């Protein structure tokens, strides 16, 4: 088991390297550091000296991938790519182009993101699974047909409208909760209720439909027929047997996204002005701060790969048929 | 006649779809699922709505030069709408502006009030008294014209089909199609008729007709939804089948590529690339001289990058399916007979994974249209000058805070986007029901 984990972690290295090279190439092949400097400095007519200064200050004054002037290992190490990447692998994100410490920002901003994403995930899961089980319980009735139609309708509405509608109805008309903002400690709850509610409602259409197909597939299996034959009632069959056996695919889906919860939701956070990592990224995109966007991409992929590893491990814990070799 | 990149690609796509349709209707094993789609009432009704949107999109994709400016056929048809712009906001069917200003009256004196609109309801003498009656009358006339047109068309259809294809007319899905067509054409005609007298969906901040904006946005939604699939399909099919069929190092490399791409959060990848394009365009203004070309390039690039991020899912599915197929008896038999690998891939593997491709294409379409709106909202979608539902929502966001609120831009984009996505979802469901072998067994 431990061997397996170590091997899988080593396998993550080439993936992360690939991600790193890809984002690096994306950013720098078309934009030279000169362009970046000009953009950050803001004016169209900046002096050459200002650009040189900016580049030196932010470490962009070296060649991109290959330093022909140096010798030996320094040919690779004295480049922007090496300098800007090696820190990422050690989770030292350096400073942003506007001069702030990215690592400190991330540490501070991941808590609001978690506070929003974790309840959204849990409540959403609970609601989706309950609705899906109800649909399976009442299968082949008008109730099921109606809820499928409702699910398709809910799915066809853009998440933007859920947010705008929710803010307008609950925040502005009913004045139950503040429309947007954030506070520290327990005070934050009143700001979080609405975004959590909206993300649950926005996800219920596609979520419930997805779990319904999972359950339906399970319902047709032999052991379910056996359970019915021995006289269990339909709800008992569903909640005791089907739910338990459908847990495996559900788990796979959930565990992968667990680590990504740190990153928060870009749209929710920016709409509700919650100072999490999602809004941090959007701000960086709008300010065209390459260092932050690149760090977030790296962090995101590292977490995703970590999630995949977690999924595989959790598989063995739940399903005795799976053996890791 | 001016052909933009996305125009050309869109028309090629339609052509390809037609060829695919003809090809599939000739193959016996494909005809069964196609007939199943044909029998589904909601599926066919949704298809009619989709085709209607496609028609609007195609009309908007035929660009030509008129008096020095590039316009599309749709612009030409909607010319009065485009030109009849007001000063600023006005509500749907309003005859007065939404905000007060100083009006100079006929006798030279001034007063503070809501001025009359330049175009909306301009033919009325006394809007407050005449308006509702006039709207009802004009609406009725428009509806009668549209309905008459449709009735004529149906009569033609009936006289043509009544003898030889009677069973077709009696079929439930034919009736569903005709009903949808009737409602759609007469409803749309009514709106178009009314819109030459009123701003049926109001005007926005700079006084542009919202109905016109919403219709122009159809093309953007369609382009994103369809071109992205067209870009992602070849990648997914080629790599998926190759990884499954050749295995070994080919499989390893392809798996590495798609895991790497998959592990980057797609929104961030899209953001990064769009940022890059923006900077590139800012640094090379000479290549992107006209606003239209600029916006078009950005749209095309958005499709490209969305395609690059979204081929991985389908690729993985195709790989798994090919792994299964290559051990099938008929493939082994073909190998034993000495059929070349490329021939096996083309004749045996490809046709047998087509149903997966088809299902995932129709399923992806609606999510892409939704994604466009979200991306445009966070400024990494289409160009801000392009008409799109995402841009409309983005623009309307601050208007919600006004008092009284300006709701019509939002409502318009909601209705249009909702009907396109709903139709796509319903159609996707019937395609999946027809082509998914696991569902086919249950009838």
Automatic annotation (TrEMBL), chain A:
Enumerate the Gene3D superfamilies for this protein. MetI-like
List each copy of the ABC transmembrane type-1 domain by range: 110-314
* GO cellular component terms given for this protein: plasma membrane
Q: What is its main location?
A: membrane
Localization terms from the record: Cell membrane
The membrane topology of this protein is: Multi-pass membrane protein
Membrane-spanning segments: 12-30, 116-138, 145-169, 189-211, 248-272, 292-318
Q: InterPro entries per the record?
A: BPD_transp_1_N (IPR045621), MetI-like (IPR000515), MetI-like_sf (IPR035906)
- Keywords, comma-separated and alphabetical: Cell membrane, Membrane, Transmembrane, Transmembrane helix, Transport
Instruction: Name a single GO biological process.
Output: transmembrane transport
In which family does this protein belong, per the annotation? Belongs to the binding-protein-dependent transport system permease family.
- What's the protein name? ABC transporter permease
Source organism (scientific name)? Methylomarinum roseum
From TrEMBL, chain B:
Q: Which Gene3D superfamilies match?
A: MetI-like
Q: Which UniProt keywords apply?
A: Cell membrane, Membrane, Peptide transport, Protein transport, Transmembrane, Transmembrane helix, Transport
Please give the family membership noted in the entry. Answer: Belongs to the binding-protein-dependent transport system permease family.
Q: Which GO terms describe its biological process?
A: peptide transport; protein transport; transmembrane transport
GO cellular component terms given for this protein: plasma membrane
Question: Which coarse location class describes where this protein primarily resides?
Answer: membrane
Instruction: Reply yes or no: does the keyword Cell membrane apply.
Output: yes
Any Pfam family the entry gives: BPD_transp_1
The species is Methylomarinum roseum
Judging by the UniProt lineage, the source's domain of life is Bacteria
Localisation per UniProt entry: Cell membrane
Q: Which residues cross the membrane?
A: 6-24, 45-64, 140-161, 181-201, 221-246, 258-279, 299-318, 356-378, 405-428
Query: Would you tell me the protein name for this molecule?
Result: ABC transporter permease
* Membrane-protein topology: Multi-pass membrane protein
Q: Where is the ABC transmembrane type-1 domain?
A: 218-428
Which CDD domains does the entry mention?
TM_PBP2 (cd06261)
